[in-house]
Amino acid sequence: MAFVRFLLVGASFSLGYAVITAGLIRFAAAPPLPTSVVVYLLCIPAAFWAQRDIAFRAKRQAKGAIWIYSATQICSLAVVSAITTRFVTRVFWQDILLFLTTASVAAVASFLICRYIVFRTQAPDGR
User: Fold this and answer.
1) Are residues 10 and 40 in contact, defined by beta-carbon separation less than 8 angstroms?
2) pLDDT of 78-108, one tens digit each?
3) Is the pTM of this model over 0.85?
4) What is the pLDDT of residue 99?
5) 80 CB-contact burial (10 Å; exposed 0-12 / middle 13-18 / buried 19+)
6) What Rg value do the Cα atoms of the chain yield, rounded?
7) Would you give the end-to-end CA distance of the chain in angstroms?
8) How does DSSP classify residue 29?
């Protein structure tokens, strides 16, 4: 169930990020790249708290959890961007498959890092 909540929180933040970024670019004539980066970075703390409280319902978290979570999100973005831009074909369905695959792998990796490192829901001794 935590994985489903994790996906719902992530999807909500992705949608919010997309709407805010597109709106700023379209209606405020903001420059695309810096706007995208700034909005993404501003979403990280809120997403951290939402994942902690909603997805994982964590009573415990690792020392420096916000920094580990932030690094995970930034690395995930960098890896997905590097892979997708390198292998993009400009063939719609092939690119959709590429983007879905890389985003899915990143989501699973992020979930595992959050579950077992960032938001430990059980004590290290198994209790």
Assistant:
1) no
2) 888 888 778 888 888 888 888 888 888 999 9
3) no
4) 80
5) middle
6) 16
7) 20
8) -
